[in-house]
Every structure is written in structure tokens, then in C-alpha cells.
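Review this fold:
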Amino acid sequence: MFRFWLTLAAGSIALGTLFAAEVEVKPKGTATPPSAVSPSVQPAASASVSPRPTGSPTPASAFIGLPQFRPVLLGLGPNSLINRMDGAGLIRDGQYDASLYFRCAVGPTGDVLNTAVYHQSPDSTLLERELMRCLDQAVFVPGVYEHQPVAAFFFGAVDFKVINRKPRLRIFANQEAEELKKESDFIGPQMFIGPGSQFHGLHYPPESATAALTGLVELGLKIDATGKLKDLKVVSEYPPLLGFRTAAEGDFRGVTTFIPAFRDGKPVECNVTLPIYYEP
């Protein structure tokens, strides 16, 4: 896992089209008119930047005008996750109402390097399969901290409904139950790697190495509008007594800075619960 984060931090820098985190999906191949886009989809910066192929040189002028903070965003280009997922195909294959949470690491080029899916609703197998298929080649808008693109974690929730035999697929950039219920224009805080961050990756606890178990620790965080961590506590640990709690406390000890949460396009203070997964 630590080696993975070193790879993530070493990626080259590129930018994508700058849009916020939640949008309604039309069937694949159908253009979305401006009036059909959710009101929460607003430019994340004053000017949009055309997507640049991963790995291509980035001129110095690309960094001019970047905001102080910007979370990882879904984007709206042809390779964005929201446009790659096939809602009509999900209906055709027999997927009904379903939801799930996911987490992915997004490099400073916007490419996805690692993914975990959890808290799936019953009978969400087809939705999970489609999400994983599309994440493989999806391109996100990279996060920004102090005017520089950085590698960061994106925490998202996917909600799929069939309404009048038509798909309604929404992806949110947070996992807070109340925010999702209200479909708020809210983007949760994001861990990042780069200048200003003390996060060095997740370290699987040695006590659990022989058991080969996946561990989950939920952290309660209070983060201010500049991304400074004000309070951290362990909310839950599963399975217990195998070192996952200690590992999480160690991995986040000294981590004082996040990309802050955003509400209605502006950084805000927040209290959130962050799920941290440990894989052998």
C-alpha cells in the first residue's frame, strides 16, 4: 500500500474540465442539454480547461489561475465517470434501484489508481460491476492544494433508480447520510499527498498479517474551511482487537491538513465520518 502511494505521488500533472460533483445521467449516447444538468453542477473555477491526455507535457501556463483549494471532481468530459456509465444498459440487464459507496485514489493527472467499493445495498451487483468497469478508464478533475495539483482520495456515493422505465443515475462526492438524503451540493474533505500534507499512506497492522483480513476503521473528523484538522476520533473498528484501530491512529497521527469540504462551491468547516480500509 505504501508503494502504491509513492507511485501515486510521482504521477505527471495534467488538468480536466472543471465541474462539480453530482449530475443526472442520460442513457449512454444521449446528449445532455444544459437545462437537464443538476443546479449543483457549476464550474469549479472561472475558466474551464480542456482535458489533456494522461502523460502529455503540461506547460507552465496551465498552473496560472488555479484556485488555492479544489477537491477532486467528476468532470463532464467523455471520459468522466458519469458519462461512461450506461444507465440504459443497467436497466436492460435487470438492475433495479440500488446504491453503494466507493473510494478511489486520483493522481495529479486525474487518472484513477486504486478503488474500493462498500456499503452496497441489496441486489446492487450489476451497478457495482458497471462502476468498476467505468472507473478503470475514467478521468477525474485532479485536486488542488495551494494552487498545485495533488494526488488525493475521492469518496463517492452512487444512487441508481428506475423512474418510468428510465434510468436516473447520480454520483455524489461525499458519503454523509444527511447530505445524500437532501442531495446537497456538498463535497467532503479529501486526504492528499503533496506539499503541505503529512499523509504517507495506509500501513496494514502487523498483528493481522497472518489472518489476511480486510479491516475498516471509521474516523470522525472535524476540519475547518482551510483544511486544518481540528479533531479526530475513532468511531468504529471492524474486526476489533486486530490492530486496525492502532494502525489508523498511527497513519493519521500528525496529519493536519486536508483539501477542505466544499458547499455550494465554497470551502466550509465540516464534521464528517471517513471510512478507512486496510487490505492485506
